[in-house]
Amino acid sequence: MKIESKEINLNSKGEFDIIDLANEIKEFVKKSDIQEGIINIQILHTTAAILVNENEPLLLKDIKKHLENHASKNSEYLHNNLEIRTVNICEEECLNGHSHCRAIYLPSNVCLNIIKGQLQLGRWQNIMFIELDHDRPRKIQLQLIGQ
Question: Which CATH number fits domain 2-72+96-146: 3.10.180.10, 3.30.70.1530, 2.60.120.460, 3.30.565.10?
Answer without folding.
Answer: 2.60.120.460
